[in-house]
Amino acid sequence: MLELYGTRLSSHLLLGTARYPSPALLSAAVRASGCEVVTVALRREAAGERAGQGFWSLIRELPVQVLPNTAGCHTVKEAVTTAHMAREVFGTRWLKLEVIGEDDTLQPDVFGLVEAARILCAEGFQVFPYTTEDLVVAERLLEAGCELLMPWGAPIGSGRGLSNLYGLKCLRAHVSHVPLIIDAGLGVPSHAAQALELGFDAVLVNSAVAQAKDPVQMAAAFAQAVSAGLAARAAGPMEPRDFAAPSTPVIGTAFRG
For the chain, what percent of residues have pLDDT higher than 90? Predict the structure, then answer.
């Protein structure tokens, strides 16, 4: 069971809603994934990429909780203003907070992120900050009032998986009491399984599902991968070794002189 800001969820998979070939495929993929939370980038949808109120109606008909997103915001002011709009549109205190600082990698502006998080947490928002694996930034976000973190696996839409395993493992160990959701950069279901095996609590996936040849099948595959990762972690994976270790006992085998 996954608990985020007091809300208990059965699924450890969150889905984004952008760039699907059609609303019907989006709806089918969400249902196939079994996810209970979807993100919606308010600024992008309002700008006309979707068909306005038709898109909002589709999202509201799905059996999910909406996590509005400040995607596209590059300043604290933009992010805070977008957050206020999202709260009015969706009637939720949940907010995925993005403050982008670099256009090529879409890396978060961690300074602006912490400032915006502090403002929004003080206003009663329940902030899901899109951040890096930096330990100091993690501490600052928690001090600002965030109760969970969403570190990137790799740049948004890159499909590269978990690029900095060492950094992510350190983050997981450093804030062992805080829910961590891998956000961005996952390309295939095995990346999601790896994240759950490493001790992360959930993954958020968008491009890998939306841009697959069959988004519905890929959504189902990610759901299976998340379940496999959780099961593997619970089973207690063996530790890696530097040398071979025979799986067959050597006692009783023929001696070679």
Answer: 77
